[in-house]
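Quick entry between incubations.
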Amino acid sequence: MENKDRRRERIDRGIKVRTEGIYAIASWQEVAYLLLPRLVLIVGLLILPIVIPSLYWKRVISIVSIYALLALGFDFLSNFVGLVSLGGAFFIGVGGYIAAILNKSLGLPPALTIPLATLGGAALCTLLLLPALPLRGVYFAIVTLMYPLALARIIEALNIVGGTDGIVGVASFASKWVEQYFIIVIAIIALFGLRRLVNEDIGLVFRGVKDNDQAIRASGLSITLYKAIAVFIAAALGSLGGAYFVHLYMVAGISLFALDYSIIPIAAAVIGGGGTLVGPLLGCFILVPVSELLRAFGTLRIVFYALILMMFIMFRSEGIMVYAQRKYHQFERWVKV
Amino acid sequence: MSEGAILRVIDVRKSFGGIQALMDVSVEVQEGEIFGIIGPNGSGKTTLINCITGFIKTDSGKVLYRGKDITNRAPNHIANLGITRTFQIMRPYYSLPAYKNLVIPLFSPRARRTGGWRGGGKLGDRDAVGIDILEEIGFERDSSVPYKLASSLPTGYLKRLELARCLALRPEIILCDEVFSGLSMSEIASMVPLIERLQMSGITLIMVEHRLRELFSVATRVMVLNFGQKLAEGHPDEVMKDEKVREAYLGSEKVLDYTFQ
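Done. Structure below.
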């Protein structure tokens, strides 16, 4: 090949100064260069429910947004704190049941149950995961997977909080527009909030925990404390999704502990590109609708689904957003070796 | 002996399985001195540092800091008291730029309480304080070095980054685990004045070293460990005349002339 004595060279566009995250902005073009991708994403998400008329697909967007919250939490925990969490189902379930119980037994409206379930669910999840925090890698993952399985069986066996029937008749949202936009806006806020957080000083501590936990202790910081804060943040996002889900479908059942909530965020992170935060969000917007489209094939859809995932892992294992960001932020040219 | 000791280690004992890493080691370090710990490989030097800083739990014995018992407390508690350490195998945050590495120790309760580097009052921007510390320790502010990812820095800078992490905590004591090892002669030559400067600023240094010549040029007292036991303690020249020490280092009657390493 004629490519043998040439190699590709990548050069950062001049807008970056010295290091990641410091920009020198001198013109409107450069402002646009930075703002455009963000605006496209935000505006795109906001007009999605307007351009899609079908009620069915509007509901899909809501579900996608819930998955997006889980995927953001997963990406944050795994790529910025070093905790591989399969706890999506756990967070959704705990948040969902708390919201349902608050609504049914105390008669609180969604405007109160959702924030309460978010904070209470996050606190409860963090508390239950506290003993597992010193664990790393796959061991932590197993514990987070165990909780939703165990809780579902406990509810079933003891016939508490509705048992296998679940809690039915949970209040719905007052308006269709609130119902639709609430979760989209939350997903956008979560995305940009997390992106800011990981570059704040406390975010650097989180990244330090992933990089080198012994150095964190030598720096006078408690590893467990910062892992707990990180788990609280991810659990809050998941619990919020669960609480919203319960009010959306007006029912809380043990299907809230379904493994989909643990697995799809991981698949979304693989497709979208882990460590970018925006990638897993976009991954959800690809994966979940594709899964809906494939419903026509019945059970065969799992096969197609698996094929799509395999293709991504084999040919674009870095993920869409890592690839796209590289193309956007760097020149490429061929140079003679 | 004296009550003015900043750090007292009393009969510390530690074994790993059947291996006695430390056997009733006692030592006192005076405030403001540079105290060397030397000994052959596997003599328990790093274990002693780990026991003092809480990274491993002692089996028995006590560690007193200004008369206060800190035995077996969590490493982060001990660091917040001002007893900091470097690691022999450097442990920077590889995915962060050098100056961002310092934001993390500056986030600790101690750094927040004591304010910025050398300045009292409210801590300023942690990035700026981090770059100040790096400059102090030999990273040129106007070069690109402080802004490079830690993963791309050479060993010499990583050793300095280890010290910088300690300095960010505004330490009383720094325990240096082989800061000279793996460095070239010129890098060591520039490191020695840095160590002296730290001592002059009032920091007590405890240095584990294999590079005896450089250590003896700065240390006020040294202790020799062998197989977890203290062989000798005192001024470097006296210690090196000790028969047992020579035996431990050379295993023979040859005269050890440490000026030629």
